[in-house]
Design goal:
single chain, 499 residues, mainly alpha, two-stranded antiparallel ribbon, 75% helix, 3% strand
Length: 499
């Protein structure tokens, strides 16, 4: 099969899987087997594209020419391949987790959940492989619409309200800012194609660059830069596998991925650095990092703490991109992958705690590590990655970001990373300490519902699929530290340093 056929297959497979999931909805075992088979086949398909891209190729599939200079097509470049590999692999793991979570939590409308999840992955592949801003924009909007039924899955008043916030902010920013920026770019350049060095080089200068950059980055609402971040904590009403999709697999990654694509291929990071019109973005990202970390520190609800942590961690990618040095751009790409594995591990753990013990607040988790040692061990690994400590992937990406900041003599960025690292430790490590080292086992055993202890073993662990999924993602977080070759190779191609 040609690489071009594989690119199309990567988007068709999840859609075909969604159809088969609906058709097999009456038979849960068959439905879930279809989900696992589809997700595994998608990852294998994306992996098959990697050799050509790693060797310097840029396979392209042209679909439609709307008018001169405005096409609908796909091109696989290093950043898109890295995003697609992370998203497709984590879909496999999330599917394993969802089988245990959705059944143990007795969730309704499970067939609808699996079908929309598959459709969301098809949209994600379209974003990853988009050859220009037009193609990316179409799939970006489709992803917003495809994830809306997942956010409102429970159908409660709270879920519907969260869905309105979700749609309002994401559609409002993309139509109000991003689309305007794209039209303005096309009028100036005659194209929206992603181009090495940036299509705006020599076409825009002075304050116009700053204004256009602002339209792009604030128009990409999925990146959750403040003040357009409220949709993300609001969406925490969704089931935990949806939270994993929003925070690790697709939605927020689509946001920061798009910001990085815009800076590298629309503006050109070297041109943007020379103009000095993008300096303000580092300060906005830095403020978001610190402010969201402080808010996270005050959250007792574990999922809300993780939500604000996500807002902060996303802005690491934006900050790294805005530093505009070669190594910081590499760090931005690596942090997309590192955060994906680390944060999904944390959300898996939060969901497992809910399923096994029905606890949602950090203050309730005294001694819970004794009943759920595997879950809390995975949580500890994810926490270390978010803090940026070895032996986890977060250390690798933060190393590149800090090295890039020093390379650009950007001491504000260095200070932000240092301060936020301490804040990360302040809101993650107490959870681990409370779970393992405070003497609360008797209280936990007394308070925990009997169903948790009876159905999930003597240690009170969640169902086996949940534990397996957590072990895979926690292991992946460590594996990226030990074997970082593939993501670093892809990230280095962004700056022309082909190994």
């Amino acid at each position: 099969m040609t690489t071009q056929a594989l690119i199309l297959l990567a988007m068709i497979l999840p859609l075909a899987g969604a159809v088969l999931i609906v058709l097999s909805g009456r038979w849960p075992n068959v439905r879930e087997a279809v989900t696992l088979a589809t997700s595994a086949t998608l990852f294998g398909t994306v992996l098959s594209i990697a050799p050509e891209v790693l060797s310097g190729g840029r396979p392209t599939v042209r679909i439609l020419e709307m008018m001169e200079g405005l096409n609908f097509f796909f091109t696989v470049e290093p950043l898109g391949l890295l995003f697609a590999l992370v998203a497709s692999f984590l879909w496999v793991v999330t599917s394993i987790y969802a089988i245990g979570y959705m059944r143990a939590h007795h969730e309704e409308n499970q067939t609808r959940f699996y079908a929309w999840f598959a459709i969301s992955l098809a949209c994600t592949m379209g974003i990853a492989f988009a050859g220009n801003m037009l193609t990316l924009f179409v799939f970006y909007e489709m992803l917003t619409l495809a994830t809306f039924p997942l956010v409102t899955h429970h159908g409660t008043d709270e879920a519907r309200k969260a869905g309105r916030v979700y749609l309002g902010i994401l559609i409002g920013t993309s139509i109000g800012f991003l689309l305007f920026a794209m039209v303005w770019t096309w009028v100036m350049t005659g194209t929206l194609d992603f181009t090495d060095g940036g299509i705006l080089a020599g076409k825009a200068d002075g304050p116009m660059i700053a204004v256009l950059l602002g339209l792009y980055v604030f128009g990409i609402g999925k990146a959750a830069l403040m003040p357009f971040h409220r949709w993300l904590p609001a969406a925490m009403v969704a089931p935990t596998p949806v939270s994993a999709l929003l925070h690790a697999v697709a939605v927020v990654k689509a946001g920061v991925f798009t910001v990085l694509k815009v800076i590298i291929y629309i503006f050109g990071y070297e041109n943007l650095a020379a103009s000095m019109q993008g300096d303000w973005l580092a300060y906005v990202a830095g403020f978001t990092i610190v402010a969201a970390s402080i808010i996270a520190l005050k959250q007792d609800n574990l999922k809300r703490r993780l939500a604000y942590s996500t807002i902060s961690q996303l802005s690491y990618v934006v900050l790294a991109a805005a530093i505009l040095s070669p190594l910081s751009e590499v760090g931005a790409a690596l942090h997309i992958a590192a955060h994906g594995f680390g944060k999904i591990t944390l959300f898996f753990a939060a969901g497992a705690i809910l399923v096994a013990s029905h606890k949602t607040d950090v203050s309730q988790m005294v001694g819970i590590g004794r009943r759920m040692p595997w879950t809390m061990a995975a949580f500890a690994v994810g926490s270390l990655s978010m803090i940026g400590l070895p032996p986890t992937a977060g250390f690798i990406s933060k190393w590149y970001i800090l090295h890039g900041a020093y390379q650009a003599d950007h001491m504000v960025a260095v200070a932000v990373v240092a301060a936020s690292t301490l804040l990360n430790a302040a809101y993650f490590l107490p959870v681990v300490y409370r779970a393992f080292f405070l003497d609360g086992e008797a209280a936990v055993l007394q308070q925990a519902p009997a169903v948790g202890a009876h159905h999930h073993g003597e240690h009170g662990e969640a169902p086996l699929p949940c534990v397996i999924a957590m072990m895979i993602t926690a292991g992946g977080t460590i594996a990226m530290f030990v074997f970082p070759g593939l993501p670093i190779s892809l990230a280095e191609q962004l700056i022309g340093a082909v190994p």
